[in-house]
Amino acid sequence: MVSAPGAAAGALAGGALAVTAWHIGPAATWLPGLRTAYFPGLDGRGAPGRVALTFDDGPDPLSTPHFLRALEALRVRATFFVLGSRLERAPELGRRMVAAGHEVAVHGWEHDRPWLPRPGRDAAELARAAAAVQRITGRRPLWYRPPYGILTGGRWAAARRTGLRPVLWSAWGRDWTASATPDGVVAEAAARLGPGGTLLLHDSDAYAAPDSWRVTLAALPHLVAYCRGLGLEVGRLGDHGHPGSGVPYGFPGRAG
C-alpha cells in the first residue's frame, strides 16, 4: 500500500511533469521539418504566387531606417516583428513603418528565452506589446512570432488570449551570425524558400553579431531579385493568404 505522503509526492511529481509537457511540448514546432509537414500555417505557408518578407528584433534607430529606404527603393512592403520595449523607445520608427505601407507585428516585449513556465507573465507581456503596437502605429497587430521561435504552451495561450496568430517562418538567411555574408544569406534562404513561403531576416543586430544587419541589408536586393526571378511577389504576411497558426488538436490555443 502506498503511504499518504508517498501518494502526495507522486501526485506532485505527476503534476509537475504535466505542466512541463504543456509548457515545452509545443516548442517542438521550432523544428522546420515538423512545421512543414504538419503545421503549414505556423510555417508561414501562404498563396503559392507570393513570398512573405519578415524582419525581427527591431525597431533599431541605427539600422531600421536603412531597411525602410531599401524597401522603398525595391518597391516592397514587409512585415516587421517588433519588440514592445524597443518600439516604445523608438515610436517614430513604428509610425514610419506603417506610413510606408509595412505591417507591424509582435515579437514580444523583451527578447528572452522562456525556459520556465510563467503563463501569467507571458500573457501580461504579450498584451503589453500588442497594446504598444496599436497605440503607437494606430493599427491592431495580427501576428506573433516568439523570440528564438520558441513557442511554449504559455506563449501560445497568451497569443490566443491577445488575439494574435502565431507564425514562425519557412526559410531564414542565418543573417544573425558572425560568419554571415551577403552571398551566404541568399544561398541559405534560397535553399528552403519557395512559392508561398515566409522568409525570416533581421533589421537589427541587438541580439545578433555586431553589424550583422549590414550583411542582411546587402543581401536584401538579391533576395528580392531571386524571388521575382521565380515569378513570386514579395510582400507582407497580411497579404499572403495565410491560413492562420495551424494549431493541431491537443496543443494550447487550438481552434475550435
TrEMBL record:
PROSITE patterns: NODB. InterPro entries: Glyco_hydro/deAcase_b/a-brl, NODB_dom, Polysacc_deacetylase_ArnD. Pfam families: Polysacc_deac_1. Coiled coil: none annotated. Residues 49-235 form the NodB homology domain. This is Polysaccharide deacetylase. It comes from Streptomyces wadayamensis.
